[in-house]
Amino acid sequence: MRLSQSFARTTKTISADEQSLNAKLLIQAGFIHKEMAGVYSYLPLGYRVLENIKQIVREEMNALGAQELAMSALQPQENWQATGRWDDELVDIWFKTELKNGQNIGLGWSHEEPMLLLAGKVAQSYRDLPIAVYQMQNKFRNELRSKSGIMRGREFLMKDMYHFARNLEELEAFYTRVQEAYFKVFERVGLKKLTFLTYASGGAFTDFSHEFQCLAESGEDTIYIDRSKKLAVNEEVYTDEVLNSLGLKKEELEQAKASEIGNIFNFKTTKAEQMGICFTDEQGRRQPMFLSSYGIGVSRLMGVIAELFNDDKGLIFPLSVAPATIYMIAIGGKETIKVSEKLYNTLTERGVAVIYDDRAVRPGEKFADADLMGIPYRVVLNDSTSASGRYEVKGRTESEPKHMDLKALIELSTSAMVK
Amino acid sequence: MRLSQSFARTTKTISADEQSLNAKLLIQAGFIHKEMAGVYSYLPLGYRVLENIKQIVREEMNALGAQELAMSALQPQENWQATGRWDDELVDIWFKTELKNGQNIGLGWSHEEPMLLLAGKVAQSYRDLPIAVYQMQNKFRNELRSKSGIMRGREFLMKDMYHFARNLEELEAFYTRVQEAYFKVFERVGLKKLTFLTYASGGAFTDFSHEFQCLAESGEDTIYIDRSKKLAVNEEVYTDEVLNSLGLKKEELEQAKASEIGNIFNFKTTKAEQMGICFTDEQGRRQPMFLSSYGIGVSRLMGVIAELFNDDKGLIFPLSVAPATIYMIAIGGKETIKVSEKLYNTLTERGVAVIYDDRAVRPGEKFADADLMGIPYRVVLNDSTSASGRYEVKGRTESEPKHMDLKALIELSTSAMVK
User: Shortest Cα distance from A8 to chain B (angstroms)?
Assistant: First the structure.
C-alpha cells in the first residue's frame, strides 16, 4: 500500500483519558480509533493485524476438525432463562435492549446457551457426536470499568469454540487437544514463552477451569507460576489445598501479573441438564450432552502483543501478525523514485505486503513512522543504493542496516512471510 | 467435508411462523438457524455461502482502491446528535441500551456519522483526499416487522463503503465507478440480469438516491422498469415530473416487485457541515468534506439468491457462491468406497470444495439432500462406475447425468471454481 493514499495517520496527540499503553501505541501508529471507553474501531492497518491473528486461530481450530459458523449477537431472553444466566445478578455484564413490541433481548457476551440449543437440533443422535464448532465474532460486555485499551473491551473480537460430546472421555480427549492447539496459536503470534496454563476457579461446574495467562505488567490477573513445570495458579484458587492437589510447592512459585488470553470451561452435562438438551444413544436412550467451551480473545491478543512488544520508538510486531513485512522509504531523485516504484511492484507481485511511504514529508518523519508502526523490515533507497542495486535493509530491532541485492531481499521477505 | 462429521442437518420440519421462502429453503438445507424473528445464525454451510459473497464484494471494493476496516457496533449518543439522527423520530430503527453509568449508547444501523468523525481526524489536508474505506459488519435495525427471512433482518451483514472527497467532481467520478463495480458484483453472484439501477428518493440531500433493485416477487419495493434502458424508478418518486426529468415514458414502464440489494447516497457537504468536519484546501482554507456512502446487503444477497434460484427440490446455487462445487455420493461395496475416498482426497487436494455424503442413510435421502442444498454438481459412484473409472456427473438443473473420467471431472470442477 502507498501511504499517501492510505487511510492511516500517525499521531502524537493522544486523548488524556487514554490510560493504557497498548491503546496509546496503537492509536499513535494509526491502527485503532477510540469511539468511547472500551470501544475501539480498527483502521486498515489495525484491521490487517486483527485479520492475521484471526487467520492463525482459524487454521489451528480447523486443524482440530472444528467448523466455523456465525451465531447472532442479538439474543432472545428465553434462550438464557433455563440456566439462570439471563439474570443480571448472575451475569452482570449484559447489554440489554428490546424490540418494538417490548420483547427483551440481550447482546451476546458468550454463546453456550444458544449453541447448545442449536446442537440439540443438529446433533440428535450419537452418530452426530462428538462435534466442535467455532466462530470469530464481536462480543459485547457491559464492563463497569474499561481502562485497559483493547485488552478489555466492551465490544471485542473473540474466538469461541464449543464441543459437544457423548461422554466425559470424548470431552477430555478434545480438551487435551485444544490445549495443544492453543499453545500453537500462542507460539505463532510470539507469546508462547510468556504464556502459562493456569488453574482457575471452575465455578459450579468442575474443580478447575483452565486459563492461558500471558505474563504482562498491565494484566488484570495475579497468578503464581512454577517456571520449571510451566504451570500457574490463579490467585482465586491459591490455597494450600489446591497447591497440594496440583503437586505445587508454595516456595517454588513466583507471583506475577498476567493477562488471560484464552480459557477453557468444562461444563460436563450441567447445562444440557438445565436446558434439556439430549441426544439418543446407541440403546435409544435420551442422554444429556457433554459441553465444553474454549475462548481466545482475538483483539485482546493484539492488545497484549502491542503491550509487550515495543520500545521507546513504538511498536515491534512479530512477523506473523504485522500488517506489512516491509516499510519502504525512498530518499533521492527521479532515478531513485523509479527504482523504488519498480521494487514496490516486484515485491507486491510476489505477495509481500509492503507499506511504501511515498508521502511528501521529511525523511526523518518517515523513519519515525516506520518505527512507530513496528513494521519488521525497513528498506531505504537513495541515490547511492539505486546506483549500486543494493538496498539498505534494517530489522525493526536491529541497530545497523545490512545491504542486500534484490534477490536476497526477496528471499528475506518471502521466507519471512511463510513463518 | 464429510457430511457424517458435519454440523449440518437437513430438515423437513420448519416452524409454522417462518413465512419467507428464502428462510424456509435455507433452514431445510441446514444453512441457517432462526434465533428469533429477523435474527438468524449461519451454520457452517450457510457461513461458507456468506463468505463467498463477502469475498466477491471485497475483491470489487479493493479494485476501486477502497480500504477495509472495522468500526464498532456500539455507538455513543454524542456522535449522532449534530445530524439529529440520534432522535427516534428521525431514525426509528435504533436499538438503544446504556452503560452501567447510565451513558446512552446505540447499536450501529449505519456508520456515516462515526466514519465522518474518523475521516476528519485521518484526512485533515487536501493531500489526504479523495479516499474510500469500507467494512463488512453486522448492522442492527429494530424493524417493526421482520417476515422476509434473511432478506430483511434485525441483525444482518452489510458492506458499507464511505467516500470522502474535496469537491463534487471527485465525488461524482467515484459514484460512477461504484455503479460499475456494483454491477460486477451482481454479475458474479448471478443477479445482474435481474437488477436495475433505480431512482429513488434522495431525502433532504439530493434529487435522487440510487438503488440497485433486483426483481423478486417477494421483494418489499415496487418499482417501474424500462427494460430497454435498464433503468427503473421507485414508486416513491414515480411522478410525471420525475419521469420527464429522466426521459422515461409512463407507457413504456412495467410495474414490478423488487428487493433493494444495494444503494448509493450522495450527501454532498450536508453532513460535514452539520458536524463541522473540514479539511484544509490548497489555499489553507477550511472546507467541508463531500461524503457519499455505498451499501450492499450481503446477507440479503444470499436471501435473494435463495429466493430466486430454486425449484421444488430445493436450492440451486450459482457456482460462484455455492458452499461446495461437488456433492459426492457412493453407493456400493468396499471397492466403491475405496475409489470414493481416493476421489474425495484427489479433488480436495486440488482445492475443489466437496461435500462427501458418507452418512449411513439410504441413497434416496442422499440424492434428495444434494438437491435440497443446491450444490452445482452431483457425482455418483457405484460398483459399475468404480470398475469403469468413469463417474456419473449431473448438474443441479440437468435431468440426465453425463459420464466422465477423472481428468474431465477435475477439469470441470476446477474450471467451475475459477468462474
Answer: 6
The dihedral through the CA atoms of A179, A180, A185, A189 has a sign that is positive
Mean pLDDT of chain B: 94
Q: What is the dihedral of CA A344, A345, A348, A349, to 10 degrees?
A: -160
Give, for B54, the enclosing helix (H) or strand (E). helix B44-63
- Whether the per-residue pLDDT at B249 is higher than 90: the answer is yes
For residue B255, report the phi and psi dihedrals to the nearest 5 degrees.
-75, 140
Summarised one tens digit per residue, pLDDT across range B295-310 is 999 999 999 999 999 9
Query: Which residues in chain B have Cβ-Cβ distances shorter than 8 Å to A68?
Result: 44, 47
Considering only alpha carbons, which residue of chain A is nearest residue B124? A9
Partner residue facing A114 (CB), from B35, B50, B144: B35
The length of chain A, given as a count of residues: 419
Alpha-carbon span B262 to A12, nearest angstrom: 39
**Residues 221-260, chain A, touching B (beta carbon < 8 A):** none
Contacts of B4 in chain A (CB under 8 A): 127
Asked if B361 reaches chain A (Cβ–Cβ under 8 Å), the answer is: no
Tens digit of each residue's pLDDT (9 = 90 or more) over A272-286: 999 999 999 999 999
Looking at beta carbons, which pairs linking A390-398 to residues 24 or more positions away fall under 8 Å? A391/A343, A396/A316, A396/A317, A396/A371, A397/A311, A397/A316
CB contact under 8 A, B69 and A105: no
B242, exposed or middle or buried, with CB in 10 Å at 0-12, 13-18, 19+? middle
Torsion angle, alpha carbons of A395, A401, A405, A410, to 10: 0
Minimal Cα distance from B157: which residue of A?
A72
A:50-89 residues touching chain B, CB 8 A cutoff:
50, 65, 67-76, 79
Pick from A67, A125, A139, A361 the residue to mutate for testing the B interface (most B CBs within 10 Å). A67
Answer whether B202 touches A (CB < 8 Å): no
Distance CA A81, CA B9 (A): 26
- Residue A72: its chain B contacts at CB < 8 A? 35, 39-41, 155
Between chain A and chain B, how many beta carbons pairs sit less than 8 Å apart?
Answer: 149
**How distant, in Å, are the alpha carbons of B6, B38, B302, B313, B400 from that of B17?**
27, 12, 21, 22, 37
pTM: 0.96
Q: Which helix (H) or strand (E) holds B366?
A: helix B363-373
**Could you tell me if B38 and B95 are in contact, meaning their C-beta atoms sit under 8 angstroms apart?**
no
Please give the pLDDT value at position B418: 43
Tell me the C-alpha distance between B376 and B398, whole Å.
Answer: 10
* pLDDT for res B15: 81
Q: CB-based burial of residue A185 (10 Å sphere; 0-12 exposed, 13-18 middle, 19+ buried)? A: buried
First to last CA, chain B: 21
Residues in chain A with CB shorter than 8 Å from the CB of B41 are 69-72, 114, 118
H or E segment and range at residue A63 = helix A44-63
CA distance B295 to B288: 23
Nearest-CA distance B204 → chain A (Å): 26
B120 touches chain A (CB under 8 A): no
ipTM: 0.96
Rounded Cα–Cα distance for residues B75 and B117 (Å) = 12
Question: Is the model's pLDDT at A418 over the cut of 70?
Answer: no
DSSP code at position A289 = P
| pLDDT classification of B419: cutoffs 50, 70, 90 | very low
- DSSP conformation class of B289: P
For residue B274, the Cα-to-chain-centroid distance in whole angstroms is 32
